[in-house]
TrEMBL record:
Protein name (Swiss-Prot/TrEMBL): DinB-like domain-containing protein
Gene3D superfamilies registered for this protein in UniProt: dinb family like domain (1.20.120.450)
Domain of life: Bacteria
Lineage: Bacteria, Pseudomonadati, Bacteroidota, Cytophagia, Cytophagales
Pfam families: DinB_2
Domain DinB-like: 37-161
Length: 174
């Protein structure tokens, strides 16, 4: 490990006020914010919507990360999606949402992570195995299943975003 590089979030100990069983979810979300910050000062706006070899764009991943956290945490509260959430979902992957820089999309994601962490703080562990329903089809899951999926789905898209961004930046340097 480099001298001024911190260990990964999960190796830094418990996050205050997060129930013990939800620490892995909180660690994964905080880790995602830190990993995405690597490009925050210099990712070129003209590459944000590029799709190298048909891969999803960096802009899509950033929008999707915010939207999917919002949706999954809504279902975890046993609520249905509202009109704004449905409109956001419909427009993910395009610049039509108005957030057209890496920094603004990252800021939106950071706000969503903060809201998600706040929800985790108020989630009683005794409710984690309660059934929750997903989508209009009302597919059954559990509160823990939704929260865990939110964490792993976030990490999956962060990894894809980082690879896509590096491909785009390498092409630009050639």
């Amino acid at each position: 490990m480099k001298e001024n590089q911190k260990p990964e979030v999960w190796l830094r100990g418990p996050i205050p006020h997060i129930p013990p069983l939800l620490q892995p979810v909180a660690h994964a979300l905080k880790q995602a914010v830190e990993e995405l910050a690597v490009f925050s000062d210099f990712f070129p706006a003209d590459l944000l919507w590029e799709k190298p070899s048909g891969l999803a764009s960096v802009g899509f991943h950033l929008q999707h990360l915010s939207g999917v956290l919002d949706r999954l945490f809504t279902y975890a509260r046993s609520e249905s999606l509202n009109e704004n959430q449905l409109a956001y979902l419909k427009n993910e992957g395009s610049a039509t949402l108005g957030d057209e820089t890496y920094e603004s999309l990252l800021f939106t994601f950071e706000k969503q992570v903060a809201a998600s962490l706040k929800q985790l703080q108020s989630t009683p562990e005794a409710t984690l195995t309660e059934v929750r329903y997903v989508g209009r089809a009302m597919v059954p899951s559990t509160q823990l299943g939704l929260l865990f999926h939110a964490a792993e789905h976030t990490q999956r898209h962060v990894g894809q975003l980082l690879v896509t961004a590096r491909i785009l930046l390498a092409r630009q340097d050639q």
